[in-house]
Amino acid sequence: MLKTILVALDSSGIAERVIETLNDLVLPKDSKVVLCHVFPPPDLEMELPADKPHSDSPALSYLQIEKQLQSYQAQLPVASEIELVTGDPAEEIIRLANIYKADLIVIGSRGLTGMNRIVQGSVSGQVVEEAHCSVFVVKLN
């Protein structure tokens, strides 16, 4: 039975699909969903592409992400919480799953292949390998 579901969301387009998929699941009324977002530590931030808009203020980004998670939270038919943390995404997702004793982790996959997957790594792949519970990977397509 799914009592606690950890939903890992990033700021990419896959987040909407992850929430849609979560809403398609039949969850018991006493379930709890934990929506989480992991910010990279300042010293590990990757260079931002020139063609993507970005904020000069980390606080503004934090508030934007928090507001987005609150809008997702309002769509959920069960109790929920929000966790905003900083660190290595896969490690933090696994840590939160352990803290909340999650029965399921729901995470999106960006579908990286080839050299991009090698260079950037696969957060969802690492979570699948290291999590102590089931992991539901949502693909964009």
TrEMBL record:
Signal peptide: none annotated. InterPro entries: Rossmann-like_a/b/a_fold, Universal_stress_UspA, UspA. Residues 1-139 form the UspA domain. PANTHER family: STRESS RESPONSE PROTEIN NHAX, UNIVERSAL STRESS PROTEIN SLL1388. Belongs to the universal stress protein A family. This is UspA domain-containing protein. It comes from Fischerella thermalis JSC-11.
